[in-house]
Amino acid sequence: MNHVITTTDLTMRFRGCDALRGVDLAVQPGTVFALLGENGAGKTTMIRILTGFQKPTSGSCRVCDMDPVSNAIGVRRQIGYVSDAPALYDWMTVAEIGWFAASFYRGNFHHSYRQSVFRYEIPLDRKIRNLSKGQRAKVALSLALAHDPSLLVLDEPTSGLDPMVRRDFLESMIDRAASGRTVFLSSHQISEVERVADTIGILHEGKLRLCCPLVDLKDSMIELTVNLDDPLVALPKLPESVETLCEETYGRQRRIVVRGFTAEMHSLFTSRDGVVGTSERPLSLEEIFIAYTKGSLGPSRPIPNESETAEPSLATGSQV
Ligand SMILES: Nc1ncnc2c1ncn2[C@@H]1O[C@H](COP(=O)(O)OP(=O)(O)OP(=O)(O)O)[C@@H](O)[C@H]1O
């Protein structure tokens, strides 16, 4: 399969800061790819390189079969792009900026643009400088989508949009992917991303910690709770195929976030002296993100009472 985006050992060093450290990535066509990461993880840097606004220190990338370093204009003509702070000509009106941008594209750019701003209820005669933050974001999105690009690159696309518009917009991204076009977006809105993304990439301190279809990710990750009769009981070593992301003790409970744990492995625990029982639960994308980036179960988890932890939960249904 021809990937829409590939990066190979992509590295970006700024003075005193390694923004990207050897990122290898491949994005399939017809998918919504969401790049997640904390502040400063390297998302915008990655997007600026892919769109030809920044030259990487080393490594390579291809976007729509072009090299954004040597052919930035070719890439930008092919894709739609909205940055986290869209630069629009403030002195133009909403109508004028549509005319202006249409001059760079063939086809019915202008008609599509006007339909889009009409749908968003933005007055055509309003100056860009007098628009609210959300209205600016809507104009930028209308411009990016008007030539119906095969690849849409969005840096924090929903910041500034109200909840209804955010939901409609993200759902429209699913329709784009269903029609074979590709959406690459960065976001902090993890619960929103969870509803629309096909593939998740997690950047952490410039490294790609994870790149995986969302369905596989959610199927392969669980929080395993092991009830112990003594908090100091040592747990068995898990097979190498299992990735342990974090382990925390709450009284007589040990909670572990694991990837690749299979049902057969429960017996490793249940046969262990001092283990009273185990249970498992699926994780939300937000919990998975926290496990990968913070190595913890999350900041706001309730700490159970001693009486709760003493109670063994033995095998039924998803529990073992
Ligand atoms: N031009 C620059 N010069 C020096 N350092 C930079 C430059 N651009 C980015 N950085 C640094 O690179 C790192 C990654 O920044 P980047 O903007 O890519 O992060 P991000 O994941 O988009 O963050 P956020 O979610 O806060 O927007 C940060 O530590 C940032 O300070």
Set out the fold topology:
Layout: E1 5-14, E2 17-27, E3 32-37, H1 43-50, E4 58-63, H2 72-78, E5 79-82, H3 94-102, H4 109-119, H5 133-145, E6 151-155, H6 163-178, E7 182-187, H7 190-196, E8 199-204, E9 207-213, H8 214-220, E10 221-228, E11 243-250, E12 253-259, H9 266-270, E13 275-282, H10 285-294, H11 306-310
Parallel strand pairs: 3-7, 3-8, 5-6, 6-7
Antiparallel strand pairs: 1-2, 1-4, 8-9, 10-12, 10-13, 11-12
Helix pairs in contact: 3-4, 4-5, 6-7
This protein binds adenosine-5'-triphosphate.
The site of adenosine-5'-triphosphate has 11 residues, from strand 2 and helix 1.
Region (Disordered): 300-320
Keywords: ATP-binding, Nucleotide-binding
Pfam family, one: ABC_tran
Care to give the gist of this entry?
It is built from eleven helices and 13 strands. The chain is α/β, with parallel strands linked by helices. The chain is elongated.
What does this protein structure show overall?
This is ABC transporter ATP-binding protein YtrB. Keywords: ATP-binding, Nucleotide-binding. One of its GO terms (molecular function) is ATP binding. With 320 residues, the chain is α/β, with parallel strands linked by helices. It is built from 11 helices and 13 strands. Helix 6 packs parallel to helix 7. The protein is elongated. The C terminus is likely disordered. It binds adenosine-5'-triphosphate. Adenosine-5'-triphosphate binds next to strand 2 and helix 1.
